[in-house]
Design brief:
alpha+beta; single chain; two-stranded parallel ribbon; 97 residues; globular
């Protein structure tokens, strides 16, 4: 799915950015906020279709993607020019959550 997103965004003339491209030991959260705050990251795309339970013990919900979406929404709400888009595989699940 990641490769499909990168290819699709590139086809639209966008330059995909991801935290894996940032070298160094900064926390992932700091790298995400840094990417979202840059003027050249005007858009963010969040795939909620992959949110689920981690099967490793103990079974734990994976909240990183919804949390990252929350950061993008908060940034937009405080006046930073940012548009965010959400992808979901199941009908009506995004509205419910």
């Amino acid at each position: 799915m990641y490769v499909a997103f990168v290819a699709g965004l590139s086809a639209f003339g966008l330059i995909p950015r991801a935290t894996v491209e940032i070298p160094g030991s900064a926390r992932r959260l700091d790298r995400i906020v840094g990417l979202l705050r840059r003027r050249r990251c005007r858009y963010s795309f969040h795939d909620l279709s992959r949110v689920g339970i981690d099967r490793g013990p103990p079974p734990t919900p994976r909240f990183n993607t919804p949390f990252e979406l929350g950061l993008a929404v908060a940034l937009e709400r405080v006046g930073h020019p940012h548009d965010w888009f959400v992808f979901e595989a199941r009908p009506h699940r995004m509205t419910k959550s």
